[in-house]
Design goal:
Keywords (chain B): FAD, Flavoprotein, Oxidoreductase
Organism (chain B): Alteromonas profundi
CATH topology of one domain in chain B: Uridine Diphospho-n-acetylenolpyruvylglucosamine Reductase, domain 3
CATH class of one domain in chain A: Alpha Beta
Protein name (chain B): Xanthine dehydrogenase family protein subunit M
CATH class of one domain in chain B: Alpha Beta
CATH topology of one domain in chain A: Aldehyde Oxidoreductase, domain 4
Largest interface: A-B, 39 and 36 residues
Radius of gyration of chain B: 20 Å
Strand content of chain A: 25-35%
Structural class of chain A: alpha+beta
Oligomer: heterodimer
Order of helices and strands of chain B: EHEHEEEHHHHHHEEEEEEHHHE
Radius of gyration of chain A: 27 Å
GO molecular function (chain B): FAD binding; oxidoreductase activity
CATH superfamily of one domain in chain A: Aldehyde oxidase/xanthine dehydrogenase, molybdopterin binding domain
Pfam families (chain B): CO_deh_flav_C (PF03450), FAD_binding_5 (PF00941)
Strand content of chain B: 15-25%
């Protein structure tokens, strides 16, 4: 029989398969899994430390315990058994103990000293205010100046070496141009819309946990370690996640406290952190000092690139970000040096935050590159194109694919580089450009795919969808393999009883788990084809209204034969596992590339900056769904605008606390801040990177996005702000200096 | 949130029955007080809910003035004001504040009484004289980029956050209130707020049990009107500096200038000195600078808000330049500089 049913192929810009669930409120997020619990969960609220470092010397919970509705007040006295935070040393940071309330020691401001569990949130919150405590506080160690960061980090996020140096350091800049500048970026927070939240329940020894977490398998291990339990007894489910941005790679206090509470009371316990508590009890990014010494010859060829990064590192937690990664790979130079130093600080957790390394590295580096281009009096786009690397500038290895030059050239054309809109009276217009290079990695991942006799296909993996479109792209990969519509595919994610995956993070989720799903689909397909009579073995499979068909190509039209007529139905369901590992990816250098272009308008009197256009051209291998990919990249560009213009945690140094830990005063960009945002892809598969041909896009959009804005502001005003974010007071100061 | 008793006020005349409730706080839209109660910044034990108070929900036009009921929402007032040429400034100010959802809830009287967004006022772990008299002021020696330069004291430098009140200052609004024994009083908004001095916890002249019933807006020509709000992001942020201005220009002479400053004062700032300096004068850059010099003579900066005097200068120049140009092009124009 003939068929004309449309199949959903990889790359097609189809709507999210979970879109209807989300917009009709049926997609359940962590704190919403109340009705699946055997009893209505009790509600926990944490009591936070008002000192950064010290020992709890006095703790009186008697008034809180007597308050209406209170079921328990849990402190270090009754929370155990718990493995000490950060132990064992040889575990990774997402599988180490995340214990809280395990002893009297306070490691940072805002750390829980008690957990109040009551019938309602209001009761718990009020009773929390009745917990009396004293802390014998010691002065907090913080990073105030760049030179206070003198420790070489044991490792850098992404596996980068802390220090690299290559080539011969030029002795003189007499025949060219040089800049020697220090940039600073502030502490920042991921600011996922869904706050960190968990519901936990013990049924005897069996623990069921609904957290909001990006990686499931390590969450199970972290719970087992922390709670000193057998991992076999822990079931973690996180089917929908309202944004992670790195802040949910691992579990945080909400999850641990919910489990502690559920264990203590033998009742389901729910904890949803308040926004203020999120700032202290989930990770943030530390502030950075980035010193750059760049030089070029009088033709605009880089002679030297030196980047030094100084940042705080949270004491007792092994994370330091590779701020210098972009300086090492984006441009070729005779001499490249990149160093990272940290200071162990008494701060809340510092961990991956929206494109660790490159987000703030590119803010500073791509701004400084513009400074050098300006000094050399060369157009900043031309300057960048002058310095494209053929191989990795530091180690000389080849790139599996490298499209930075194409992104810059084609992007400039579409954007209309230096074809500026005309300015309104009292305003000036500027254009800015920045390159984006983001390392690509393939992470071990697995998935199971099964097909029943009706041709319904189910994908099972503990992979997560943090809002990026995972459900949709995995359904497309399966639909593509089986020549069918995504309507025939069921994707089940976020369940620890499914095969372990990469999880979402580090831009690796789609390519890693997508490849595992592809392999599993191929295995199911091979299995089916192997059962067919010989003359069908080169056929394709297709799933249509008639169920599974074998499709043979004849001269001009496909011919479908129902599978049921060829194979005994007892072979179903066919179930196969697919997995990828480092064997499935090249050892050569893998990068996603991009170019950002921005037009801004600045008021010459009030120094107000308004974005007019953000445009980006990107190359990240095969784009699995053009629509979700564009949305994700655009989101990154919006975050970039936040980093450039608005976002900063202000520190109260005396107390080592945050001054603005809420969305009223921590300014993420709002709708009116963002104007036109447009994205295009150079859509070419890179099968050396991953079997599905995709590379990472999650962190690509943000990399360079902010610097392009900073560069556009400079182009418009001649004001270079080196202290991010570029708020109105700083631009005003620059304008006033220029005027006088 | 501390548990509280809830009483309802259904008719204005019932106010007498409330006089026995000690320390009662009125709650209207709930967009500010409830937030502060959740954080235990405010801990009232008696709340009087105004959501069933039907008497003061409308705007009425009279011969000499408009009367805006206390419970008229910010959205309703903004809509009304946008269709009333002499109140355009008020509409612009309202629409520059908060979000649609908040403006749908927030009331006229509640907006006047909203509390500061000083970081330290919100943080119960830090000293704040406004929250806890005598505990000290954290802002003075810490990050204070959002803080005031006018009307400050060594005890408090927190700004009043309202945009609406800044426009009402410029438009010479009156506040109408009722006392617990049922007596009605009216006073100029310009005399309503208290600078912090030694008592930053006292923010206005309302006495215990007194309830705002309406805001009276005089019907006067305000000329071309413009509210310009400079802030850390382009929406949903409080003003770093805002200027509310209405200008009537004749032969380049300032016939009438309505002016209010936001984001710079411990109270919505009425720049009487600057207005006096400019009224009747030629509208020149030099005269604007002179007026600003005179107004800023009383300003004090505290470190990270050192930029505010210059930002205020530039913003006022921008606003007056634009208004003057419009008045020159369209003499006797009355209404918004830009449509909103």
């Amino acid at each position: 029989m003939k068929t004309n049913q449309t199949a959903n192929f990889i790359g097609e810009p189809i709507n999210r398969v979970d879109g209807v669930l989300k917009v009709t409120g049926q997609a359940r997020y962590a704190a919403e899994h109340t009705s699946t619990m055997p009893q209505t969960p009790l509600v926990g609220f944490l009591v936070a430390s008002t000192s950064a470092v010290g020992e709890i010397s006095h703790l009186d919970t008697s008034q809180a315990e007597k308050a209406e509705g209170v079921q328990a007040v849990i402190t270090h006295k009754n929370a155990g058994p718990l493995k000490a935070f950060g132990k064992p040393d040889d575990e990774g940071r997402f599988t180490q103990s995340r214990a809280v309330l395990s002893d009297t020691h306070i490691r940072h401001y805002g750390m829980p000293v008690a957990l109040v569990i009551a019938q309602t949130l209001e009761q718990a919150r009020y009773a929390g205010s009745l917990v009396e405590f004293n802390i014998d506080a010691q002065p907090a160690q913080l990073l105030h100046k760049a030179n206070q960061a003198s420790d070489v980090p044991e490792s850098l996020d992404g596996g980068f070496e802390p220090d690299v140096e290559t080539g011969d350091k030029p002795s003189t800049y007499s025949d060219g141009f040089a800049v020697d500048v220090q940039y600073t970026t502030p502490s920042q927070i991921s600011a996922a819309m869904e706050p960190h939240a968990t519901i936990a329940h013990f049924d005897g020894e069996k623990l069921t946990v609904y957290p909001s977490v990006q990686i499931i398998a390590s969450a199970v291990q972290a719970l087992a370690t922390t709670l000193e339990m057998d991992a076999e007894n822990i079931h973690v489910k996180s089917p929908f996640i309202g944004g992670g941005f790195g802040s949910k790679l691992g579990l945080h206090y909400d999850a641990i406290l919910a489990c502690i509470g559920a264990r203590y009371l033998k009742r389901p316990v729910k904890i949803a952190l308040s926004r203020r508590h999120v700032f202290y009890n989930s990770p943030h990014r530390g502030h950075s000092f980035q010193h750059m010494q760049l030089s070029c010859d009088n033709q605009g060829k880089f002679q030297s690139i030196a980047h030094h990064s100084a940042m705080p590192k949270a004491k007792g937690y092994p994370f330091a970000e590779a701020t210098g990664a972009g300086a090492r790979v984006t441009y070729s130079a005779e001499y490249i040096k990149s160093t990272h130093r940290v200071k162990n600080a008494d701060t809340p957790l510092i961990d991956s935050t929206r494109s660790p390394g490159d987000a703030i590295g590119s803010l500073a580096f791509e701004s400084a590159v513009d400074e050098l281009a300006n000094k050399a009096n060369i157009d900043p786009l031309t300057f960048r194109l002058n310095n494209m690397p053929k191989v990795h500038p530091v180690n000389g290895n080849r790139f599996t694919s490298h499209k930075l030059e194409s992104c810059l050239r084609r992007g400039a054309e579409v954007f209309g580089w230096q074809r500026k809109s005309s300015a309104q009276p009292g305003k000036v217009i500027g254009h800015g450009v920045a390159s984006a290079m983001r390392m690509n990695v393939l992470v071990e991942s697995s998935a199971e795919v099964s097909m029943d006799e009706k041709g319904k296909i189910t994908v099972l993996t503990d992979m997560t969808d943090i809002g990026t479109g995972t459900y949709t792209i995995l359904a497309q990969i399966a639909a593509d393999t089986f020549n069918t519509s995504v309507d025939n595919i069921t994707v089940n994610l976020g369940d620890s009883q499914s095969p372990a995956s990469s999880g979402s993070g580090g831009s690796f989720g789609a390519s890693s788990t997508g490849s595992a799903v592809l392999k599993a689909c191929e295995a199911v397909k091979s299995k089916l084809l192997s059962l067919l009579p010989k003359n069908y073995q080169n056929a394709q499979l297709a799933v249509t209204e008639q169920g599974v068909c074998v499709r043979q190509s004849h001269a001009d039209s496909p011919q479908d034969t129902p599978l049921a007529s060829l194979v005994d139905s007892s072979v179903f369901p066919i179930r196969e596992l697919g997995a990828v590992s480092e064997d499935d990816t090249s050892d050569d250098e893998q990068y996603s590339c991009g170019a950002h272009f921005v037009e801004v308008e600045v008021d010459t009197l009030t120094a107000e900056v308004r974005l007019k256009r953000q445009y980006g051209m990107f190359s990240a291998g095969k784009i699995l769904n053009e629509k979700t990919a564009k949305s994700q990249i655009k989101g990154g560009m919006v975050w970039g605008a936040g980093y450039a213009l608005t976002e900063a945690i202000h520190h109260h140094t005396d107390s080592a606390s945050f001054i603005n830990p809420d969305f009223g005063e921590y300014h993420i960009a709002v709708n009116r801040d963002i104007a036109e945002v447009a994205v295009d892809f150079i859509d070419l598969p890179d099968f050396e990177a991953s079997p599905v041909g995709a590379k990472g896009i999650g962190e690509l959009g943000i990399t360079g996005a902010g610097a392009a804005i900073a560069n556009a502001i400079f182009d418009a005003t001649g004001v270079r702000v080196r202290d991010f974010p570029i708020t109105v007071d700083k631009v005003l100061e620059g304008l006033s200096k220029k005027a006088s | 949130m501390q548990p509280f008793n809830l009483t309802h006020l259904n008719n204005t005349s019932d106010i007498k029955s409330l006089s026995s409730i000690e320390g009662a706080r009125f709650i209207a839209g709930g967009t500010n007080l409830i937030d502060l109660m959740k954080l235990q910044v405010e801990t009232p034990v008696e709340l009087v809910d105004l959501s069933d108070w039907q008497d003061e929900r409308s705007i009425t036009e009279h011969d000499e003035h408009f009367r805006v009921g206390a419970m008229v929402t910010n959205t309703e007032l903004a809509n009304y004001a946008s269709k009333t040429v002499g109140l355009s400034l008020l509409s612009q100010a309202l629409l520059s504040g908060a979000t649609v959802q908040l403006r749908n809830r927030a009331t006229t009287a509640g907006n006047l009484l909203q509390r500061t967004r000083c970081y330290y006022f919100y943080d119960t772990a830090k000293p704040c004289n406004k929250r806890e008299p005598g505990s000290g002021c954290t802002a003075i020696d810490s990050v204070n980029r959002i803080h005031a330069i006018f009307g400050t004291s060594e005890n408090c430098i927190a700004t009043h956050p309202s945009d609406m009140a800044v426009a009402m200052m410029a438009l010479d609004a009156q506040v109408e209130l009722i006392t617990p024994n049922g007596e009605t009083k009216t006073l100029p908004l310009r005399n309503f707020y208290c600078k912090p001095g030694a008592t930053p916890h006292i923010e206005n002249c309302l006495k215990e049990g007194e309830l705002i019933t309406a805001v009276i807006l005089p019907k006067r020509a305000a000329g071309t009107q413009y509210y310009h709000k400079v802030r850390d992001r382009s929406s949903y942020a409080f003003a770093l500096v805002s200027v509310a201005a209405g200008l009537v220009l004749q032969n380049n002479k300032v016939e009438k200038l309505s002016l209010g400053f936001g984001g710079v004062g411990t109270v919505p700032w009425y720049p009487a000195t600057a207005i006096e300096a400019l009224t009747g004068a030629q509208l020149t850059e030099a005269n604007i600078e002179k007026a600003l010099d005179a107004e800023l003579a009383s300003a004090k900066v505290y470190g990270s808000n050192n930029f505010k005097p210059q930002l205020l200068r530039n913003t006022l120049h921008k606003v007056l330049r634009a208004l003057a140009e419009h008045q020159r092009t369209y003499p006797q124009h009355e209404g918004a500089l830009y449509e909103n």
